[in-house]
Task: inverse folding
């Protein structure tokens, strides 16, 4: 057996790992990497028509966005994911295609490929064993976003666990990840936060709410860029605990994503609380609503979380030079994104022009990923024969590899394109 790292190796984005045997080709995730001007797809796919199955951990684009790209190149196989992941994947693939056409990106696939991919999806129930051509598999709740899962595979006697994106801590929205796994030979572990832990969530929430209150007291608008799936709903739950006199606007793909999440209430801790939170916001339906939002003290919860597109760009065009307003980032900002540029340079690209931001900028850590200590605890608990660290910037991946090696584990930090015999 060999592992082929088509993406997600020493980088965050385009997660795509192949398990190859003499008779099988299996994919773990199939994502794209969002960059400032274009999307980057998994590399080294001379053929895709002989892939036997794909296992998708969750619906974020960096884990699903290349599915239609590979379909266009001939992939035609069962694609396994949970029901919620399927519905959310349908939403984000269609949205990504629409945005790509508007921005004239070279997508490498057509709309028909999305339809074909969706028809290939096979629903998986968490904690229920499945089988395909003698390969047994099981999905475990990963606690990352609604519908997310870690994937366990028994491939010709070798037991593989792929964490996907995993969070072993509870949030306002989700229960902590399941971590009681069968005996594992090979662990493929995410490393997004391989070098640091997260601050205590209640303290971070307090800091966030104070920033919102301060913005409103100065007569400004608080722009809260969110990931449509997971982060948007948690921020709504957070804001709903406080009685703000200013209106809360809810805009972008997160509106439809929230409706999908509410249709599967068993995936979250308290669907009634989320429904109540949605009832307290103003759903943005037009540019007129957006104009109203920026011309009064307001809270604007909108996509996209890394400011690479979506309605947040319209708000930025009006508010970037207003010192009394704020941009309150709520999560990780990947390399080559507008959000990372904002943090590092206090600049953003708006309508193709790089602009200096005058409003207040703060970043808050409401991560849906395990922190360093949680990842280390997970690896110790699993006790794999071999561990591969992926889905992290190079310094994070190498730090975890060094730590695991020091404990006597056979640990790897694969590079993009590596093929490793196991």
Result:
């Amino acid at each position: 057996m060999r592992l082929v790292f088509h993406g997600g190796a020493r980088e965050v984005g385009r997660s795509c790992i192949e398990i190859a045997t003499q008779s099988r080709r299996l994919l773990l995730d199939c994502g794209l990497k969002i960059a400032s001007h274009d999307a980057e797809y998994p590399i080294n796919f001379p053929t895709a028509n002989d892939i036997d199955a794909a296992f998708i951990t969750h619906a974020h684009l960096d884990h699903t966005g290349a599915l239609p790209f590979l379909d266009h190149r001939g992939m035609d196989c069962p694609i396994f994911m949970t029901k919620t992941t399927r519905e959310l994947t349908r939403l984000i693939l269609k949205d990504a295609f629409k945005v790509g056409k508007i921005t004239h990106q070279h997508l490498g696939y057509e709309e028909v490929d999305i339809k074909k991919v969706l028809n290939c999806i096979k629903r998986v129930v968490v904690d229920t064993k499945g089988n395909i051509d003698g390969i047994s598999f099981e999905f475990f709740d990963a606690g990352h976003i609604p519908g997310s899962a870690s994937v366990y595979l028994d491939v010709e006697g070798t037991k593989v666990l792929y964490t996907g994106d995993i969070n072993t801590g509870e949030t306002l929205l989700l229960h902590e990840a399941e971590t009681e796994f069968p005996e594992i030979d090979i662990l493929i572990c995410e490393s997004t936060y391989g070098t640091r832990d997260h601050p205590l969530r209640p303290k971070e929430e307090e800091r966030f709410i104070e920033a919102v209150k301060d913005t409103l007291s100065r007569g400004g608008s608080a722009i809260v860029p969110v990931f449509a799936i997971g982060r948007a709903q948690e921020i709504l739950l957070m804001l709903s605990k406080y009685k703000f006199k200013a209106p809360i606007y809810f805009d972008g793909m997160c509106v439809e994503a929230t409706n999908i999440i509410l249709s599967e209430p068993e995936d979250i801790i308290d669907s009634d609380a989320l429904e109540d939170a949605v009832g307290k916001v103003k759903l943005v339906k037009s540019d007129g609503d957006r104009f109203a939002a920026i011309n009064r003290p307001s809270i604007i919860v909108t996509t996209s979380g890394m400011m690479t597109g979506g309605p947040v760009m319209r708000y930025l065009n009006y508010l970037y030079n207003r010192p009394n307003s704020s941009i309150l980032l709520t999560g990780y900002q990947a390399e080559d994104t507008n959000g990372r540029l904002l943090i590092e340079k206090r600049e953003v690209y708006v309508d193709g022009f790089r602009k200096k931001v005058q409003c207040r900028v703060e970043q808050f850590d409401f991560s849906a990923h395990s922190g360093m200590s949680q990842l280390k605890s997970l690896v110790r608990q699993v006790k794999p024969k071999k561990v591969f660290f992926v889905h992290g910037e190079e310094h994070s991946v190498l730090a975890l590899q060094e730590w695991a090696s020091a404990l006597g584990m056979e640990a790897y930090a694969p590079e993009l394109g590596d093929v490793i015999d196991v």
In short: The longest strand covers residues 135-141. The mean pLDDT is 95. The chain has two domains: 2-196+368-421, 201-363. The two ends are 6 Å apart (CA to CA).
